[in-house]
Amino acid sequence: MKPTKLATAISVLSVASVALAGVAGAASMSTQVSAKLTAKAEIPVQVVKNTKGTGSFTGTLNGRKLVWKLTFGKLTGPALAAHIHMGKAGKAGNVVVPLCAGTKCKSGVHGTATLTAAVLKAVKNGGAYVNVHTAKNPNGEIRGQITP
């Protein structure tokens, strides 16, 4: 039995719609990222030693959009600021995404950011970190590398 033109067209359309659904599903996949913040990981080392400070950074990447949450505690004083920096483990780097500052820098702070292509690549490949700054440790009191 020879297929009709209509049957062939329906078959082609079915295959195309399955392929498009797969592409749309892949595009909407998200990536979870996180960081465990500790005093030991801070570079440069703390000015005022505090080994008790800890924190947690979690985020979801959808394309270049990052939805994040930061918690922390047992610092030497109030957090003054928190950022995402470019830099591999053991290296200090420039601020690329401000997370909070001043009186808005409280544990549980959350938000969204649109990342540049370079920052997105660093976040996905261990080339970015989060740290929290205090008055006694203005360069950073706790730090953690972001990993998928």
Number of structurally distinct domains = 1
Our measurement of the CA-to-CA distance between the termini, rounded to an integer number of angstroms, reads 53 Å
Please state the average pLDDT score.
Answer: 88
| Contiguous helical run count | 2
Percent in helix? 10-25%
Structural overview:
With 148 residues, this protein is α+β, with helices and mostly antiparallel strands. It has a single domain, classed as Immunoglobulin-like, CATH 2.60.40. The protein is built from 2 helices and 8 strands; from the N terminus they run αββββββαββ. It has a 4-stranded antiparallel beta sheet, with no helix packed on it. A 4-stranded antiparallel beta sheet has the order 5-4-7-8.
Feature tags:
148 residues, alpha+beta, Immunoglobulin-like, four-stranded antiparallel sheet, 21% helix
Furnish the topology, listing elements before pairings:
Blueprint: H1 5-27, E1 31-38, E2 54-62, E3 65-73, E4 79-86, E5 95-101, E6 109-114, H2 117-124, E7 128-134, E8 142-145
Antiparallel strand pairs: 1-2, 2-3, 3-6, 4-5, 4-7, 7-8
